[in-house]
């Protein structure tokens, strides 16, 4: 029976122009395409006029001023009638984009918040325009093929084994959680013959312990309580002078844990701590996890990009010994938020989170060889983020990625040397990646050794730099003292930019003395 006999028309014969909503959705009709192109035009203009061309890192307006401005421009969240696209995006530019943190500015150096590649921004248009959902084949098709290719390449890059696998995630928080989730459930299955997916947690769960550096990311503790183990399950290990996990302290802790009858099931190694960029001794930690039959998870959200650098990839030596790895692409891979991956040495590890739903990923799909990626993720609906990384790889090539990474690490060392040359600054770390922690301690004043005064001074300096839009620096605390941090991710930042920040810090302190 033909389509016409069924009362259906071929797609090219569809009469849709009379539908009142046609123009609002991208489709083959001229009116729809015109509306889409107009929206993209005004959106791009707003980004360029109010964000990309800004010479400041921030406009400097306060939270209260920003709130008042928004309320004045948009007195309703959902107006009764529609706005023109030109006016709407102009107002968004004036109220939102103009007062956003300009992450692409060379002096925006606070967090692990990278300037995104233009090629990746263009890829985002394709990702949002096609709106693929990566949970099932019939929602993503070719997108599933590309993610599988990307995951296969990434897992081989880090693990060098055929059994490895992975999945794209929203970032380090989700990836770290997945690593500890699989670690917990594998331990319970192998050591206690307990299926937590069906039975929940056993009584012995209160004895489960996770070990990590005291400088590990806070999501290790967060994962512990989300997994029903409580923060008390996390045992922070002391660090050495380079802010890496102290192996001697780890050995003492493991010995004490065993004597207490506790059950250490996972050890988290950090390849790039948030504050210092320190990389734990992965090979030595892998020896301990083998000895104690623990899961080794490497949080390489920050430092994973070193794998692309011939000059620095040796710092990740032993990462292939991990059971699972976190790597973020919205850091040193220069991707727009969000974009990360979770990788496992053994594909079968994903069995611990696998679940079939008849409407989504029925078991008979597997028999037919149909891939539904939801079986590897704790997310159901998931963006096609693999595309922007793939496009970026091809647009730049490995050599350029490596050069950018190498440049920022060299810049961090030059910055550390610059601070060492000035007695008014106290530098706290030798950069292993591209983070430099320091504070301003002006010499020759009565208060140069006053901790409370120095804390207040450095806090004010950071705030003033943000308010005048000249720089965005991070603030952290170490041993109850306030320190500033330069996170030198941006390959457009120069030593002269750093020198300018140093001069401004000194000028601000002199101004406050008047």
Q: What key attributes describe this structure?
A:
514 residues, alpha/beta, PLP-dependent transferase-like, Aspartate Aminotransferase, domain 2, Aspartate Aminotransferase, domain 1, 3 domains, seven-stranded mixed beta sheet, five-stranded mixed beta sheet, 15 helices, 12% strand
Q: What is the number of beta strands? A: 12
Please provide the ordered H/E string of secondary-structure elements: HHHEHHHEHHEHEHEHEEEHHEEHEEH
- Unreliable residue stretches: 1-9
Gap from first CA to last CA: 90 Å
Q: What class, by secondary structure content?
A: alpha/beta
Any overview of this molecule?
This protein is of the alpha/beta class and 514 residues long. It is built from 15 helices and 12 strands. The longest helix has 35 residues. The radius of gyration is 26 Å and the shape is globular. The N terminus is likely disordered.
What topology does this entry show?
Elements lengths: L29 H23 L10 H11 L11 H11 L12 E2 L8 H13 L6 H4 L1 H18 L5 E5 L2 H21 L3 H4 L8 E6 L5 H8 L7 E4 L9 H13 L3 E8 L11 H11 L2 E5 L24 E5 L11 E5 L18 H5 L18 H35 L4 E3 L7 E6 L10 H17 L4 E7 L2 E7 L7 H19 L1
Parallel strand pairs: 1-11, 3-4, 3-5, 5-6, 6-7
Antiparallel strand pairs: 2-8, 7-8, 9-10, 10-12, 11-12
């Amino acid at each position: 029976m033909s389509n016409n006999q069924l009362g259906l028309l071929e797609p090219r014969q569809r009469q849709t122009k009379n539908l009142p909503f046609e123009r609002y959705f991208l489709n083959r009709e001229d009116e729809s395409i015109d509306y889409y192109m107009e929206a993209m035009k005004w959106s791009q203009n707003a980004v360029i006029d109010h964000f990309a061309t800004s010479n400041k890192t921030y406009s400097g307006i306060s939270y209260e001023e920003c709130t008042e401005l928004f309320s004045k421009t948009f007195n309703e969240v959902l107006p009764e009638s529609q706005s023109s696209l030109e006016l709407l995006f102009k107002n968004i530019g004036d109220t939102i984009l103009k007062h956003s943190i300009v992450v692409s500015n060379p002096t925006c150096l606070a967090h692990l918040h990278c300037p995104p590649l233009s090629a990746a921004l263009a890829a985002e248009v394709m990702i949002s325009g096609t709106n693929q959902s990566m949970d099932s084949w019939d929602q993503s098709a070719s997108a599933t093929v590309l993610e599988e290719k990307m995951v296969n390449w990434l897992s081989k890059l880090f693990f060098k084994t055929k059994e490895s696998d992975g999945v794209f995630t929203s970032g380090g928080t989700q990836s770290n959680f997945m690593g500890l989730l699989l670690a917990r459930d594998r331990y319970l299955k192998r050591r206690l013959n307990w299926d937590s997916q069906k039975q929940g947690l056993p009584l012995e769960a209160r004895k489960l312990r996770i070990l990590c550096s005291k400088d590990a990311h806070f999501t290790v503790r967060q994962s512990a309580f989300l997994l029903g183990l409580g923060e008390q399950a996390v045992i922070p290990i002391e660090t050495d002078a380079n802010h890496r996990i102290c192996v001697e302290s780890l050995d003492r802790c493991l010995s004490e844990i065993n004597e207490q009858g506790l059950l250490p099931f996972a050890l988290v190694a950090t390849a790039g701590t948030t504050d210092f960029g320190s990389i734990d001794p992965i090979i030595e930690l892998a020896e301990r996890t083998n000895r104690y039959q623990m899961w080794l998870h490497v949080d390489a959200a920050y430092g994973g990009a070193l794998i692309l650098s011939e000059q620095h990839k040796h710092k990740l030596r032993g990462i292939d010994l991990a059971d699972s790895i976190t790597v973020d692409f919205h850091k040193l891979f220069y991707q727009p938020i969000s974009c990360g991956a979770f990788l496992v040495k053994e594909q079968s590890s994903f069995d611990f989170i696998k679940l079939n739903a008849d409407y989504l990923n029925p078991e008979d799909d597997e028999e037919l060889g149909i891939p539904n990626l939801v079986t590897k993720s704790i997310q159901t609906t998931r963006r096609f983020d693999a595309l922007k990384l793939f496009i970026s790889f091809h647009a730049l090539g490995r050599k350029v990625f490596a050069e950018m990474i190498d440049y920022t690490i060299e810049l961090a060392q030059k910055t550390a040397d610059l601070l060492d040359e000035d007695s008014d600054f106290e530098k706290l770390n030798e950069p292993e990646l591209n983070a430099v922690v320091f504070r301003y301690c002006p010499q020759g004043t009565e208060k140069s050794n006053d901790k409370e005064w120095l804390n207040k001074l450095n806090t004010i300096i950071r705030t003033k730099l943000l308010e005048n839009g000249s720089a965005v620096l991070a603030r952290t605390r170490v041993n109850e003292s306030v320190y500033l941090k330069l996170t030198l991710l941006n390959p457009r930042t120069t030593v002269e930019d750093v020198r300018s920040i140093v001069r401004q810090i000194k000028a601000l302190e002199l101004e406050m003395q008047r």
